[in-house]
UniProtKB/TrEMBL annotation:
Ranges where the NTF2-like N-terminal transpeptidase domain occurs: 31-146
Protein name in UniProt: Penicillin-binding transpeptidase domain-containing protein
Source species: Paenibacillus contaminans
Subcellular location: Membrane
Gene3D superfamilies given in the database record: DD-peptidase/beta-lactamase superfamily (3.40.710.10), NTF2-like, domain 1 (3.10.450.100), Penicillin-binding protein 2a (Domain 2) (3.90.1310.10), Penicillin-binding protein 2a, domain 3 (3.30.1390.30)
PROSITE patterns, A to Z: PROKAR_LIPOPROTEIN
Pfam families (alphabetical): MecA_N, PBP_dimer, Transpeptidase
Residue ranges annotated for the Penicillin-binding protein transpeptidase domain, each copy included: 354-667
Keywords from the UniProt entry: Membrane
Gene Ontology biological process terms in this record: cell wall organization; response to antibiotic
Principal place of residence: membrane
Amino acid sequence: MRVDKRLLVWLSVFVLMIIVYGCKEKLPSSEDGMKAYLTAWSKGEYEDMYEQLSGEAKAAVSKDVFVTRHSSIYEGISASELDIQLVFASHDENGDKSRDTFGIHVKMTTIAGDVEFDQTVTMVLENKAWRVEWTPGFIFPQLQESDKVRVQSLKAERGAIVDRSGQSLAFNEEKLEIGIVPKDLPEPAGDTLKRLAGILQSSEEEIEQKRTASWVKPDYFVPIAVLSKDDPKVKAVQALKGTAIRNKKVRSYPLKEAAAHLVGYIGKQNADEWARLKDKGYMEDDYVGKAGLEQVFEEQLRGTDGGRIYIVDANGKEKGTIASRDAVNGRDITLTVDANLQTSIYKQLENDAGAAAAIHPLTGEVLALVSSPAYNPNAFVTGVPESLWKKWNEDPDKPLLNRFARTFSPGSAFKPITAAIALDTHTIDPEQERNITGKQWRKDGSWGNYYVTRVSDAAAKVNLLKGLMYSDNIYFAQTALEMGEQRFVAEAGKFGFGEKLPVPYPLDVSTLMNESMKNEIQLADSGYGQGEVLMNPLHISTAYTAFVNAGNIVSPVLVREEGQAAERKVWKSEVIRPETADLITRDLIQVVESPAGTGRDAKIEGVTLAAKTGTAELKQSKGAAGKEVGWFVAYNTNDPRLLLALMVENVEGRGGSHYLSPKVRTVFKQYLR
C-alpha cells in the first residue's frame, strides 16, 4: 500500500505541535501570585514575601531592611491574629496584560486595639512570574519610606486587694528605687559597693552581679533595691557617690508575713509564663501574680493595658495616629477577711509552725487564713536576694509552705463529727455510759498488738459528755465500730469530704481515707480523727458551723462583691438534726467551762466558748514516738461571731493541744472586746 508523502509530512507537523504546546509550562495567574503573597504575609514569613517583590520594589528596599522593618513593627505593636482577605481583582481585558490590580482588607489585634484598613495592590508580570509592587503603605496606609512607627504603652493600674473594712492588703505604692550609675562610681568602686551592701543588708557579690550584667552600659541606671520614702537608709545611700534614686510605683503588702500565703505576691514573668501569656496582651517584662490571691485573681486585678500607635516623620514630628486605646485599670478585690484578726492570729503563731482558719459561724465569711512561719512578700517584688532565698529554703519550719492550704490529721477535733452522726443514727444514747478501764483497749485478739490509747483513765464510766470533755479515744473508737464502716463513711461524708470547698482558693481536699477502709482498726482510729482522716483548717471550721446553724453547714465566703451584704448561704443542708447540733454545742461548752475539760485554759470571763481540743500523733513506724499536731477549735455561743480552727505542729513535750489554749484565749479576747 502506497502512503502519500505529503500526508506523512502533515502528520509529523501535527504531532510535533501537540508535543510542543502540550509540554509548554502553564503560567500561574496573577491571582495565584497574590494569594501566595498574602499567605506568607499572614504567617509572618517576611523573607518569602521579599522574594515575591517586583524588581523595582527590591531596588528600593534591601531584604534585610524589609524583613527587619516588618518584624520590628509587628513585634513592637504586639500584632496578633493577622487576617488578610482578598476583596477584589481587576483585570484590564483590553489594555496592559502585564499588570493586574487587587483590593485587600487587613485586620490585626494590637496593643492599641484592633487595627484594620483597605489597601490596593498592583501585581506585575516579570520574567513569566507575577510580582508585587510593594510600598511601605502596605504595612499601614499612612506610612511612607522615611517614616517610623512609634508605640506608647499605657499601663493599667493593678487593682488593690482590701479587707472587709477597706484596709489594704495589696496596693500600689510610690517608693524609692535605689540604683547605681556605673560611670559615676569612684575608682576603684569596691569600697562604695561594700558600704552600699552594708546599708541595704545585701551582699557585695549580688550588687556586683547587677552592675556587670550584659545589658548594663556606663550611663545606665542599675536598680539595686527599693525602699520606702521614710526609710532612714535613704539618706545613707544618698551620701555615697555613684548612687542614684528615682521614684517607682511598686506593689506593697502592708501586713507582710501575717497575710503572705493568703495574698501572695507578684513578680516578673518567667519564660514559661511569657510563652503562655503573650497572646493575652502581656508584655515580656510585665509582672504577674505568682502565688495566693494575686495569682488566683490575676485576670481581674491586672486590668487591660492600653496603648497608642502613631507615625513620625524622619525629623521625629508626629504625623498621625494609627490606633489608640485607653488603659482599663484592674478591679479591686474586697475580701471578707478582717486584717486585724489576721494579724492577731499570726502573732500567736509566728514562733511556731502552724495554721489557722477563722470564719463567722453564721454567715460563713472567712475572717482569717493564716500560715506560719511565712515570708515577707515585699521581697519578691524587687527580687529576693540569693542569701534570703537560701535562708527560706533551708529553714526546717518551711516558711514558703502554705499550711492553711494543706490537709492534716485532725485528731480529736474530728470527734464532734463522730458524735453527731452517731447520735443521728441512734448508734449511741448520750446518757449511756461505757465501762472503760485502763488507758488501752482493743476489740479482741485479732488486733494483735494494736491498742487504742486514751490520754487519761480518770473516768471508768464514759458517756458522750465525758467522752468529749476528756477527749476519750476509746469511747469514739468503740462508737465508730458500732456504727459500722458503711454507715460511718456515708454519714461522715455528708460533711463535705472528698469535695472542694466552694471558695476561690486552691486548698487540698479533705479525705476520710485514701481508697478504702482497710480494716476495723482503721475504722476505730478514724472515729477519733486518726487513721487516714485528713482535713484542711478551713474545712474543719466550716464543718463546725453545723453545730451553730441547726445542722446546716454554711458555705464559706472569701470575696465580698460590691454592695453585697453578709448573708448565710448553706453549703450542706441538714447534715445533722437541730437537736443533735444543740446537744453537741452544750457538751463542747463543758470542754472549756468544766475544770476537768481539756480546753479549760481558754476560758474567758463573761464569754461562753464551745470548743474541742485535739492532738494527732504522726508515727513514722509502730512503737516509735511520733510528731504531734495540736488542734483547738472554738466558737463563742452568745451572739456567735467567731469560729476559729487553730493548728500547731510539733506540740510533743509542750503540753499537746494545751499549748494552744492561751493562744485561742488571746485571739477571742482581742476580737470580741
